[in-house]
Write a structure and sequence with these properties.
Structural class: alpha/beta
Largest sheet: 6 strands, mixed
Bound molecules: adenosine-5'-triphosphate
Distance between the termini: 27 Å
Helix content: 25-40%
Order of helices and strands: EEEHEEHEHHHHEHEHEEHH
Number of strands: 10
Shape: globular
Strand order of the largest sheet: 6-7-8-3-9-10
CATH architecture of one domain: 3-Layer(aba) Sandwich
CATH superfamily of one domain: P-loop containing nucleotide triphosphate hydrolases
CATH topology of one domain: Rossmann fold
Oligomer: single chain
Number of helices: 10
Length: 242
């Protein structure tokens, strides 16, 4: 299947024939896709089909069973996670783990590695964090903690940011704020984003391209707006009635 649509720019990330899982358990089978600089790709699909496993495989946290991952022209599939991170791959896992006993300002300052996302720039992106800068992270709401983990990932100056269900369980107003911040961080830097999201409508409305995963394989790749406009296809792929 041709999974590459309109990406004539050099890819930031190229995943080829990737198979991976946990120990002997095979979860992903022959995954192919690329993401170009500045693009936002969303990964959608039903529960348990392997979306998180794909993100974790890019980070180096699963058992690689075959295939290649090329990041900015360099093969990384055999590198340990910390080396991939140092090369510029930032990861925001589902679990939202903040440094609970540090303040917001300390959470951000401790990981800053240079680059545009200074603590002040991050406060501009997430004004709620500016208001809570002296609060211990454990006292923040779920939405504020999610903003903090995204901000903390940006402070490490990634060129590729992997977001795993960043708006899951958040109130609608906070979801809107989060999506606005993600759009703004894209506008203000050359950041490339891969986002896993269950809320397919929000994901497709705010991204460039998408891949749909089923049973550990890419079953569809499209321009996001086109898939969003095709309710029948969306229903067939991920079983949602619009
Ligand atoms: N650490 C693990 N060890 C073994 N199997 C795992 C592990 N983590 C996930 N799995 C299995 O891998 C499969 C894919 O899970 P994964 O979390 O990648 O799916 P997902 O599409 O992200 O689901 P969800 O949308 O519910 O988060 C599932 O069958 C799951 O049980």
């Amino acid at each position: 299947m041709a999974t590459d649509l309109a990406t004539d720019l050099a890819p930031v990330l190229a995943v080829s024939n990737l198979s991976a899982g946990y120990g002997a358990a095979k979860i992903l089978h022959g995954i192919d896709f690329t993401v170009a600089r500045g693009e936002m790709l969303v990964v959608i699909g039903r529960n348990g089909v392997g979306k998180t496993t794909l993100i974790e495989t890019i980070c180096g946290l699963t058992t690689l069973q075959g295939g290649t991952i090329t990041f900015n022209g360099q093969r990384i599939e055999k590198l340990p996670p910390f080396r991939r991170n140092r090369l510029g791959i930032g990861w925001v896992p589902q679990e939202r783990e903040v440094f609970a006993s540090l303040t917001v300002a300390e959470n951000l300052g401790i990981v800053y590695r240079g680059g545009p996302w200074t603590t002040e720039a991050l406060y501009g992106l997430f004004p709620r964090l500016a208001e809570r800068r002296r609060s211990y992270a454990r006292l923040l709401s779920g939405g504020e903690q999610q903003m903090l983990v995204i901000a903390r990932a940006l402070a490490t100056d990634p060129t590729l940011l992997l977001l795993d269900e960043p708006v899951e369980g958040l109130a609608p107003l906070i979801v809107q704020e989060m999506i606005a911040a993600i759009n703004r961080m894209r506008r203000e830097s050359a950041l490339t984003i891969i986002m896993v999201e269950q809320k397919h409508d929000i994901a497709l409305a705010n991204s460039d391209r998408c891949i749909v995963i089923d049973h550990g394989a890419v079953v569809h790749a499209a321009v996001s707006a086109e898939l969003l406009a095709d309710a029948a296809l969306l229903e067939r792929l991920i079983g949602v009635a619009e």
